[in-house]
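Running co-folding for zinc ion.
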Amino acid sequence: MTTMRAAVFDPATAELTVRDVPVPVPAPGEVLVRVAACGICHSDLSLLHGVFKTKLPAITPGHEASGTIAALGAPAPGWAEGDRVVLHAGRACGVCATCVAGGSPDDCENVRIMAFDFDGAWAEYVIAPVTALVKVPDSIPLSQAAVLADAVSTPYAAVTSTAVVRPAETVGVWGLGGIGTHAVQAARLSGAAPIIALDPLLAARERALDLGADHVLDPADPDVDARIRELTGGRGLDVAIDAVGRTGSVQQANRALATRGRLVLVGMTGDTLDLGTELHFSRERHSVIGHLGYRKEHIQQLVDLVATGRLDISRSVSALLPLEEINEGVRRLEEHEGNPIRIVIQP
Ligand SMILES: [Zn+2]
Ligand SMILES: [Zn+2]
């Protein structure tokens, strides 16, 4: 087979169309993956809306992918055709100081990202570097494995590596879509108590309660600040995770912090940060930390946590759609139809 179906985005016309394109050929150090599943993420919407730019004249989006190895560009120890894999979206440059020194691809100074800098996985096949592969055991459906890349691993990394949540710390999560819902689950895995989850949507709050939140609040409720103090014995939050990124949510999260509290920002918007007076910030010894993405070890840890039954992400796949209906999937995410955690494409 020499051609495949792929969704191709043209930045000049802002159109996403499914068409026949050549099946790519893996170079040494790469594999060709038969895509089983790929999520639709808010950062894909940012590309389609022109908020994130690509330098390419046309690109296939999709960076939350799983599948099976269809061909190896050269023999790769430990890998074989048919292996079930989930893909890290990063690709190391190979020539920067870190790469030359043999550092982790995660530390590459010019790391390139699948679906933004090279073709992604809203297609029947995708090329990935061998370094991006994480094995998926037969016990994990590939549709679930796909969402581990980014949708689960980014909030998991924010909670475990950036916030470094410890047992019995109080944690608040603002925004209960894909990122925030998985942040609640990661906080639960980390032993946080209590976990307070906030979202204006009742259905999202109820889902968070099912998945590990101890209390849920509507951020529009005028008593939110007082309620958080009450639920944390008057102290406030050790950790606030903001997955919304709007000035209002960040300020509310900042006000909720305990002395020495850490505010971790995961939302990506153009809003201005306004964290109150410098005096308050210093006196309370607050930290504000920006968070982006995940490292390969986070995907590996999540595969292990799902395989051992510690983490249940069976509800994270909100809908499965064929590739030909990619624009319908995009529309559903844009309109939050059905309050999805992740809509997943099966090419
Ligand atoms: Zn994503
Ligand atoms: Zn590099």
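Result summary
The longest helix spans residues 142-162.
Residues 30 and 130 are 5 Å apart (CA to CA).
Job closed.
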